[in-house]
Amino acid sequence: MAEILPADKALEPALALLRAGEVVAIPTETVYGLAGDATNGDAVARIYEAKGRPRFNPLIAHVSDMEMAGRIGRFDPLSQKLAETFWPGPLTLVVPLKPDAGIHPLVTAGLDTIALRMPRGFGAKLIAALGAPLAAPSANTSGRISSTSAEAVAGDLGPRIRLVVDDGATSVGLESTILKVEDGKVRLLRPGGITAAEIEAAIGMKPERGAKGIEAPGMMLSHYAPAAGMRLAVEEVCAGEALLAFGPQRVKGADRAAATLNLSPSGNLREAATNLFSFMRELDRGGTATIAVEPIPVEGLGEAINDRLARAAAPRGTESGE
Questions:
Q1: 224 pLDDT higher than 90
Q2: Under a CB-based contact definition with an 8 Å cutoff, are residues 83 and 66 in contact?
Q3: Residues in a beta bridge with 318
Q4: Where do the domains of the chain lie?
Q5: How many whole angstroms separate alpha carbon 247 and alpha carbon 249?
Q6: CATH of span 229-320
Q7: How many whole angstroms separate alpha carbon 38 and alpha carbon 23?
Q8: Residue 34 and residue 110 in contact, taking contact as beta carbons nearer than 8 Å
Q9: DSSP string spanning 212-276?
Q10: pTM for the full model?
Q11: CA-to-CA distance for 264 and 299, rounded, in angstroms?
Q12: pLDDT value at position 298?
């Protein structure tokens, strides 16, 4: 069961866990977040695992200051103004991801943008002390109500994590508002702790509604697809196909593959989740027409892996909301 520590005594224990690639439930002004080092793939995979039955949607990366944010994302003047107005606070901005940002691909779920937020309080101190951004979705089992107190987190995720930092009830109690600036306009991707009226007052324009596929947490779309076609759960590899392998045993014809990358030679689903997007990209860069994917178990993180693979293989333009 997770240990609960008050915020004034939790900084060093939380830092030690984060540096070891573990996850920690932390208070923010919105809801409690399940935090892990956004530059560490194993830590990000643990976030998905601890929340249970996850789907690979992009995660918000939390930063301590504008200097850290600027190292990760590119800010146009309007995004900069929004950040200066509402940060620190319950606003998330989706901005282009810098290629040398160091963010693990699991955080962005294969997108070329990054969702950034600057929290107040303990979270800000923890990020500054770590010197790295924290990926932190809500600290609750997938599909359940978001937690606004340490006790709620412990009652839900307690058996699956080691530490919950208690700073009392959250002040906002709703997840952050998510905005994206595009072509000089602001789109509201998710309503939250900052209202549309407050946004309009700050920038002199009404935010537009509507998303174009998966652009932020909580959205689903047939996306993440390479240029190559994909065949899933194959029993045999055809000549010239690239092979995305899993585990110690190869399917028939694996020796004919144009290129092979193994998500986890030992069959570790956490390792496979960590490697999925980067390996798909690398195989796609080889220019083969098709990527064949070996069967991957559905249990645990395997459900999320198979979900993402199915979306990558789906006909382009297929959408569903969540």
A1: no
A2: yes
A3: none
A4: 3-219, 229-320
A5: 6
A6: 3.40.50.11030
A7: 11
A8: no
A9: SSS-STT-EES----SSEEE-S-SBPPTT-EEEE-SS-PPBTGGG-SEEEES-TT--HHHHHHHH
A10: 0.77
A11: 15
A12: 87
